[in-house]
Design a protein that fits this description.
single chain, mainly alpha, 2 domains, two-stranded antiparallel ribbon, 2 strands, 40% helix
């Protein structure tokens, strides 16, 4: 739903994140290199994104494996992963300690 609303705001394609000024007429679009117009109807996008979401959920269900995941928040330079996992899920923490780690580490600059 948020994806649909974001796409249907009265703004340029390049300004979806900030919405500096409402756009109600055609404009030259830097993203597409042509004349574009803001969207004034949400229905067609709602249908398109709903169908796309259903397709992705079905695809994810087929690809999903029988694994266990846990999300830890902390500075990747200083966090003690084993210790934090043992606090949140002792069995998983012990398993990681014994078998080492196979994981994904991400550190986007999210401001909380």
């Amino acid at each position: 739903m948020s994806r649909t609303v974001r796409s249907c705001r009265a703004t340029t394609h390049a300004d979806l994140a900030t919405l500096k000024e409402p756009v109600t007429t055609t404009y030259y679009c830097k993203n597409h290199g042509k004349i574009c117009k803001p969207l004034f109807s949400i229905l067609s996008w709602w249908k398109r994104y709903t169908q796309d979401t259903i397709k992705r959920v079905i695809q994810f269900k087929k690809l999903k494996t029988d694994t266990f995941q846990k999300c830890l928040q902390g500075d990747s330079r200083t966090i003690n992963i084993v210790q934090e996992l043992e606090k949140k899920h002792s069995k998983f923490g012990k398993l990681i300690k014994k078998n080492k780690i196979a994981g994904i580490f991400s550190s986007p600059p999210y401001v909380v």
